[in-house]
Structure formats: structure tokens, C-alpha cells
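This is your field. Have a critical look at the following sequence-structure pair:

***
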Amino acid sequence: MESVHDRLIEAAHAVFAEEGFRGATTRKIAARAGVNEVTLFRHFASKEELVAAAVDRQVEASITMLERSPLPAEPVDVAGELRRFLTATLFGFMAAHQAVRTSLGEWGHRPVLDDRLSGTSRYVSNEVERYLVAAQERGLIRTDVDHVVAAQALLSAIFAHGMLHQMTPERFPLRPEESVAMYLKIMIEGLGASKREGDAG
């Protein structure tokens, strides 16, 4: 049976995603968890502490999911390896689109939450940037392209898809995995292995 502590964290995440920090009152969270506010405050000293725990739990779950499709330390198949990781990333964004949109609206208002709210996106960015550097070092992609800019250009497409697919579905006619493959095709052609000095053409 799920503990009261865990029920409170899950309830806090759900109410926060729906209504933001201000709307996520302790009364609403307690009611969603099936307890009273006295019980809530026995487990958490403040609403801020509870919401922070809920965000931490969600970020941890997201990263655990992404680690099932990891980017290797030594790239071999750039398109295939990125496709697996970014497809998992896109499905994660799509599943959590409401919470992510709410988090964007909360950014900058609660310093204790800011670093937590960016946890998943920071992990994804770091992984893709690390991977692109490794691919450059192995001569698999061009070395004259900044890996941070390249990573953010690619992730911007993934993020926009995850956030907007329900609002404007006509703009996303392909299945998510097909869209990722198309984003990668565009990017990989731009990141194609640079010609060695002396090569013809």
C-alpha cells in the first residue's frame, strides 16, 4: 500500500501541474491525497518543501526513464543513437506537457524551485552536448560546429513538439518517432562529417 508520504508527493505534483504554485494550496493537496492538512504538515514543514519534493520526484523519474535509452560514451551510429535517446525525450515531454508548461510559468518566482524545475532539461542538454563532443572527437560529425549551439537547436525542435503537439496537432502530422527521425535528418546533414584538407569538391 502506498504510504501517506508518497500520496502527498503525488498529489502535490498533480495539483501543482494543474494550478501552479499559488493555486496548489495545502488544502487542495491534502484533499487530493485523501488526508487533512494536519497530516500534511506532519510530513512537510511547508507547501514549498512539499512541492520541491514533488518536483524532485518527477525529475528523478524522468531521468530514470531516459537512462533506459542512454547515449553511449563512444558514438558509433550518430543518427541511430540520437534517435533512440531523443525519441524517449520527446515522449517524456509529451507525457508531462502540462507540468512543463506550468513550470515555465513559475520560473523566476520561487528561487528554491528554479534549479529543480530545470533538472530534466539540464540533464538532456548535458547528455546531448557530451555526445556531440565525443562524436566530433571521433570524426563522425563536423568539428567546426559549436556543440552547445547544435544541441540546443535540436532540442528546441524536440521541446516545441512536446509542448505544442496538442495545441496545434496539424503542425505535427508525423508520429513522434518519425518526427524525431526527420529533425535528425535535417540536423545530421548540417553536422555531416567535415571534409579533410585536400579532399576533392
User: Anything to note?
Assistant: The radius of gyration is 20 Å. The chain has two domains: 1-58, 69-192. DSSP finds ten helices and no strands in the chain. The domain at 1-58 is CATH 1.10.10.60 (Arc Repressor Mutant, subunit A).
